[in-house]
Records
---
Amino acid sequence: MRELSLHILDIAQNAIKANAENLRIAIIEDTAEDKLIIKIKDDGIGMDSGTVAKVVDPFYTTRTTRNVGLGIPMFKTAAEQCDGYFKINSQPGVGTEIVAQFKHSHIDRVPLGDMAQTIITIINACDQMDLVYTHCVDGRGFRLNTKEIRKLLEGVPLNNIDVIAWLHDYIKEGLNDIYTAAKQEAI
Ligand SMILES: Nc1ncnc2c1ncn2[C@@H]1O[C@H](COP(=O)(O)OP(=O)(O)O)[C@@H](O)[C@H]1O
Ligand SMILES: [Mg+2]
């Protein structure tokens, strides 16, 4: 895929399908260590070890509308092609955690993409699910917790059009700040 955010969206959609109530997306960018790490954790139905072994296989899916599942194998391949690794920890009834690590400067590492738009899309796709998104660039962090935002909204739904527009700008500006601070420090 052309952007890592598309993989993140795909993994988040799996969590929604797995009836997750809580989703955590953590991105850690460390230029000194030359690493980009993506962790996505849900509390959905989970998978047993046999299923986990099968989902990394590009020809496996429980879907009936399309006979191959490609989301997970594609993400795994992307990480492994960039001197990284990919792992899934999952337990039935508990949830699933996926970790993908990339060499940050690897020539084949596609850009992260538009994370503000991606987070908004996930929130829009499932209003009931709560999301914690953390993004750290060289020690500077941004954090969004929909539980905290819900409290401030006093009953206005998260996917209200004005809320979505505000959230989008809030994330965009927050990420801009951490990238700018990291760049200034590097000079
Ligand atoms: N977070 C998850 N929780 C429970 N099951 C999952 C999760 N992610 C993936 N799966 C299972 O693995 C299968 C393969 O996922 P994926 O590779 O994304 O392909 P697809 O979503 O197209 O089926 C899914 O159909 C689902 O059964
Ligand atoms: Mg999928």
Note: The chain has one domain: 4-186.
---
Amino acid sequence: MEAIEAIISRKVQRAFAPTPVEDDKLSKIVEAGRNAMSARNLQPWQFILIRDRARLKQIGELCTTGKFVTDAPAAIVVLKDLSNTRWADVDCAQAVQNMANAGWALGLGTCWVGNFDAAKIGALIEAPTGWAIFTILPFGYPDPKRPPEARPLKRRAEVVHLERVGNQKT
Ligand SMILES: Cc1cc2nc3c(=O)[nH]c(=O)nc-3n(C[C@H](O)[C@H](O)[C@H](O)COP(=O)(O)O)c2cc1C
């Protein structure tokens, strides 16, 4: 899929088909994450690939607002460097967006998980001191019975302006 088409059509996916995710696709997704912009090129991230079914289930059960991780064929846990206090959140978010777009272009969906038991997941993946769990991204093919939902976007005129705020002749 073309980049622009993938970026514009991407939607979060919270239900996955059991079809396995190919290793090379997961590898490309992580490459997209590694290649995100980061302030001063500090790359304050680590990506932990989770493929083991039992671990996916354990992690999913610890995701308060992301139980769907339990049924995903793969996931990526993103760690952020706590010594980089100024921009690490922004940098990691960009890596996440790159990975979501790359996955979508490859036919795979994901959803950002914002609430989880960080201490327990950190222990499971043996996160080193000085690194926090930023998010968990499940990846999988869409469940044909529960395709991703279209979300309402703010009207273009509400958020796009020409030269000055309020001029909508774009
Ligand atoms: C920082 C952030 C945290 C989010 N946390 C959750 C979450 O915990 N659980 C969930 O189901 N979706 C979560 N989402 C997904 C959003 O609800 C979703 O991106 C939004 O509704 C827009 O849908 P779209 O991405 O399909 O355009 C999160 C998204 C972001 C950016």
Note: The chain has a mean pLDDT of 96.
